[in-house]
Structure formats: structure tokens, C-alpha cells
């Protein structure tokens, strides 16, 4: 049985400096932090540095990192090839108003790997990538509407996030639309232009797309929606997405900002989806801000200015900045097909190990995910869509306890999001993840009210 080292755990180790910084942060930031996704119960861990697969916080505690800045750092922290390349570049300039060779080199790499991408455009974040992919679909089709998957996360563009914050109170009321605003004050007209579809439900897809088709520019889909459960797509559902989009002249936009890490060619290629446009980000920046929208050349022509003003103007002071381009190229060059295969093998062994522990104890948990991603659910059966993955308050508290227990064991496990692996991780690190989960289940079995408390 795994026994956590409480000298560095959430129960026993010092958090005094993190608490000190949190007090300072509360004087200058709303809630004391600058991202709503940062866990701050009771206070966030402030990080001093990263070393490979590990983080060291300001109090000197060492933690195995299963977050990797929300799946961005596929090589972990301080990846030397990227650090060396960026250090060399810093002396020669970090950003210019003119283009550089670096953006061409990264573009060529991505186009060579990702079947759906013939031309590409760089932006600064995943949110921007999704936003400009939607705008490109509108400019190409001359339609305003967007269809999207219920509960999936696509960044902070109004039309991409409407329908994300659904709950039983909404889906159990036939009089209410699932295209609910994600923040107070969002224009009501946004919801009128967004159609929300249940994942893996072909009947719901066909019915809703047919009724909204004349106004729809695109179907926005993450092939394995992370925030909505990291749920595997049914082949029949993805086939139906492609068929119905073609039937009505709607473009398919694949959000691979997170899931591009699922294979050498990305997640659409892995699952047989044939998108017209792809939004990318995270791993293609090598740890620096980045986003990209790519797709068929005829669609990407909406950005072209050869004959004057483009159908879709797109700029950005830091778009295609040399630092992100060089870091991204070096990081992606290191992600060979063999590297993706090794990372997937580690992911497979962890998912199998977690499932064996669940089966051994007859626990009401399950594991979803693929490649270098996994997510633990407090459910006895794997969910097939967001509604089945949705956590009621008791389940949400249980998952918070699980994350606290992992922290006690020296492992940073995202709460309510995908856990991810990096090439810096070893089999021993994977075994530690499985052991920490086994320990949680044993504590939970012995005393259901105290695990992770």
C-alpha cells in the first residue's frame, strides 16, 4: 500500500509563503488570482520553478505535475532544447512588426502533420484560435450561426462559450434553451445564434441541425471534449457530424487546442473526423502563448489581402512572435511519432492501473481519456456525454477530496479537468499515480468521510 510522505503533503508541509503571496495578491487582483481556473481552496500554491515532470513551490515542496499548465507542457518544465533555443533568440529580438522565417518553419511542420490543414494563421491563444475559426466559417458561408456541443469548453468568445454552463435545472426544463449565457450581461442575441447539441447523440444532432441549418456557419466540436468529461467519441456520431454538415453546406470546426496532443496528426485524424478548419494552441507554442487556425486553402483565403481588404481581417501585436514560433517548432520537432507512442503507452498503463484498482475494490469510479490524457469520475459507469459526466454536489466534493489526497501524496491532480502526462514522466511516476489512487480508495473504504480531508 502507498503511504504518502506527510512531510511534504497538504496536511503536513508548510504553505506559509504561498499564503503570504495570496494575501498580497488579494490586494491587487479580484479573489487574489488572475485565472478563474486556479485552485485557491484554501489558497493557491505559488510556484518557484519547474523541473521536468515536477513543480517546486515557494515553500520548497516538490510535486509531480499532472496539470502541465492545463495540458500545454507536453515535455514538462524546463525542456532544455526549448530553453536553449529561446535563450539564443532573446539576444536577437523577441518581437517585430515584420514577419520572420520562424513562423514559416512552424507552419510547414504543422501542415505536414495535420491532414486537414493546408494553410494556417497564427494568433496568441486558444480562445483567439477558436474565435477566428468561427469568424472564418462565417466569412466563407455568409451565415452567422454556430452549433456546439453541450458542456464543452472552447475559450472565452461569446458564441463559443454559450451553452457551456448548462446544468440539470436547465436541461430538465423543456421551456428553457440550452444556449444559456456563460456570464451575466451577455447579449441575449448570442443565444439566438447558438445551437447546442448533445455529444454522441445522433438523433439530437440531426434534429437540432436540421432546424437551424439555414443560419449555421459551422459545427464547433472538440473530438474528445475535456471539460465535458474527456469522453470518447462514438464513430457513428462523428460520421453523422460530417454527413449532416455536408448536407447543409455547414463547415466543421475542430477545436484541437487541447487534444492536438492525442497523436502525431492530432485528434481529428485519430478519430476519423474530417474538419474544414482546426483551431490549435497549447503544445504548439512550446510553453509560450500561441494559437493557430488552419484548414482548407479555399476557406483560409478569407484572411487573404492580395486583392485589397480581406473578407476577414486578422492581426495581433504578438501573433507569430518569434519566441513562440521557435519554442513551438523545437517542442514539436521533439514530438516524433515514437515520442507520441511512448507517451500513449505510459497513459495506457496508468489508465489500466487505475481501472484495476477500481475493479479490485468494487469502487464506484471510472476512468476516461486517451493517449496522454485521463480523467477520473466518481461514477460506476463511463459517461457518454456531458449530462452523464455532470457532478452533483456530493460527487464534486468527493473529487475535491481526491485532489487533496493526491496533493497529500505529492501529486498535483487537476480538480474537474483532464490530467495529462509529459515526456519527462517515468514509469515510476505513473506507478505513483496509481498508488496514490489505490491509497485514496482504501482510506475511503475504511472511512468514507475522511479521505482527503
TrEMBL record:
The species this protein was found in: Rhizobium phaseoli
One of the entry's Gene Ontology molecular-function terms is: pyridoxal phosphate binding
Q: Which cofactor does it need?
A: pyridoxal 5'-phosphate
Query: Can you tell me which family this protein belongs to?
Result: Belongs to the class-III pyridoxal-phosphate-dependent aminotransferase family.
Entry's Pfam families? Aminotran_3
Higher taxonomy = Bacteria, Pseudomonadati, Pseudomonadota, Alphaproteobacteria, Hyphomicrobiales
In its UniProt entry, what is this protein called? Aminotransferase class III-fold pyridoxal phosphate-dependent enzyme
Q: Which UniProt keywords apply?
A: Aminotransferase, Pyridoxal phosphate, Transferase
Amino acid at each position: 500500500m502507498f503511504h504518502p510522505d506527510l512531510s511534504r503533503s497538504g496536511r503536513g508541509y508548510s504553505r506559509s509563503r504561498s499564503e503570504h503571496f495570496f494575501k498580497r495578491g488579494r490586494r491587487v487582483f479580484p479573489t487574489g488570482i488572475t485565472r478563474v481556473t486556479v485552485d485557491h481552496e484554501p489558497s493557491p500554491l505559488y510556484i518557484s520553478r519547474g523541473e521536468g515532470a515536477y513543480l517546486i513551490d515557494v515553500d520548497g515542496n516538490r510535486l509531480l505535475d499532472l496539470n502541465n499548465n492545463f495540458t500545454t507542457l507536453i515535455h514538462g518544465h524546463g525542456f532544455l532544447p526549448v530553453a536553449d533555443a529561446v535563450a539564443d533568440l532573446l539576444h536577437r529580438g523577441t518581437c517585430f512588426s515584420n514577419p520572420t522565417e520562424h513562423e514559416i518553419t512552424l507552419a510547414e511542420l504543422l501542415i505536414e502533420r495535420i491532414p486537414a490543414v493546408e494553410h494556417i494563421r497564427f494568433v496568441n491563444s486558444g480562445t483567439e484560435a477558436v474565435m477566428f475559426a468561427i469568424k472564418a466559417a462565417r466569412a466563407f458561408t455568409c451565415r452567422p450561426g454556430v452549433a456546439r456541443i453541450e458542456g464543452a469548453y472552447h475559450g472565452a468568445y461569446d458564441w463559443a462559450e454559450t451553452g457551456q454552463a448548462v446544468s440539470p435545472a436547465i436541461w430538465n426544463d423543456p421551456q428553457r434553451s440550452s444556449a444559456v449565457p456563460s456570464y451575466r450581461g451577455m447579449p441575449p442575441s448570442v443565444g439566438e445564434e447558438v445551437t447546442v447539441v448533445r455529444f454522441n447523440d445522433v438523433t439530437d444532432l440531426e434534429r437540432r441541425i436540421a432546424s437551424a441549418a439555414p443560419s449555421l456557419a459551422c459545427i464547433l466540436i472538440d473530438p474528445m471534449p475535456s471539460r465535458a468529461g474527456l469522453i470518447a467519441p462514438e464513430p457513428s456520431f462523428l460520421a453523422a457530424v460530417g454527413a449532416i454538415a455536408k448536407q447543409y453546406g455547414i463547415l466543421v470546426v475542430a477545436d484541437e487546442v487541447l487534444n492536438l496532443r492525442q497523436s502525431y496528426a492530432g485528434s481529428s485524424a485519430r478519430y476519423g473526423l474530417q474538419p474544414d478548419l482546426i483551431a490549435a494552441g497549447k503544445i504548439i507554442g512550446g510553453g509560450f502563448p500561441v494559437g493557430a487556425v488552419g484548414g482548407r486553402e479555399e476557406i483560409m483565403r478569407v484572411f487573404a489581402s492580395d486583392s485589397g481588404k480581406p473578407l476577414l481581417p486578422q492581426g495581433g501585436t504578438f501573433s507569430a512572435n518569434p519566441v513562440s514560433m521557435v519554442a513551438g517548432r523545437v517542442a514539436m520537432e521533439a514530438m516524433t511519432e515514437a515520442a507520441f507512442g511512448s507517451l500513449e503507452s505510459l497513459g495506457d498503463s496508468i489508465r489500466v492501473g487505475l481501472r484495476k484498482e477500481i475493479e479490485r475494490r468494487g469502487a464506484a469510479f471510472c476512468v476516461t481519456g486517451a493517449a496522454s490524457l485521463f480523467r477520473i469520475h466518481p461514477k460506476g459507469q463511463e459517461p457518454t456525454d456531458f449530462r452523464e459526466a455532470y457532478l452533483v454536489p456530493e460527487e464534486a466534493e468527493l473529487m475535491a477530496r481526491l485532489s487533496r489526497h493526491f496533493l497529500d501524496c505529492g501529486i498535483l491532480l487537476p480538480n474537474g479537468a483532464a490530467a495529462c502526462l509529459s515526456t519527462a514522466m517515468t514509469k515510476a511516476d505513473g506507478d505513483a499515480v496509481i498508488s496514490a489512487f489505490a491509497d485514496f480508495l482504501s482510506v475511503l473504504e475504511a472511512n468514507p468521510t475522511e479521505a482527503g480531508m
